[in-house]
Amino acid sequence: MATAVNGQDAFDYLHENEMPDLVLLDMRMPEIDGPSFIKLIRDDFRLNRLKVFAVSGSAREEFSSNLAVDGWFAKPVRIDSILEAVRNPTRGAMATV
Questions:
Q1: Nearest to 81 by CA among 38, 35, 24
Q2: Tell me: the pLDDT tens digits for 21-77?
Q3: Within a 13 Å sphere around the CA of 15, how many CA atoms are in the beta-carbon half?
Q4: What dihedral do alpha carbons 69, 51, 24, 47 form, nearest 10°?
Q5: What is the dihedral of CA 55, 94, 96, 29, to 10 degrees?
Q6: Which three-class secondary structure string do you get for the chain?
Q7: Phi-psi region of 31 (alpha: psi -120 to 50; beta: other; left: phi over 0)
């Protein structure tokens, strides 16, 4: 597990290290915000299949409706919701709980 203090650090980490299984992404990161980070990942051939789960204290409707994320979690995030989404990816992870 790794953490980054902002979007730029996270993007740099992904390019400098082994590919993680997934990214848990705060949508309001400094330097590169969540929507911009997602676009960078999806436009990058090496990273575009990476699972991205978005987390925000804001409603999903405040962001573009075409965000290419594998799941959405409202803050405060319940760890059991994230674990369920990771274990059962076909069930959908657009949890708001």
A1: 24
A2: 999 999 998 899 999 999 999 999 999 999 999 998 877 777 776 788 888 888 898
A3: 10
A4: -100
A5: 10
A6: CCCCCCHHHHHHHHHHCCCCCEEEEECCCCCCCHHHHHHHHHHCCCCCCCEEEEEECCCHHHCCCCCCCCEEEECCCCHHHHHHHHHCHHHCCCCCC
A7: left
As given in the structure block, the two tokens for residue 67 are: 């965000």
Query: For 17-22, which contacts have Cβ atoms below 8 Å and span 24 or more sequence positions?
Result: 19/46, 19/47, 19/50, 20/50, 21/51, 21/86, 22/50, 22/51, 22/52, 22/53, 22/70, 22/86
Tokens at 24, concatenated: 């848990």
Beta carbons of 51 and 23 less than 8 angstroms apart = yes
56 neighbors 75 (Cβ within 8 angstroms): yes
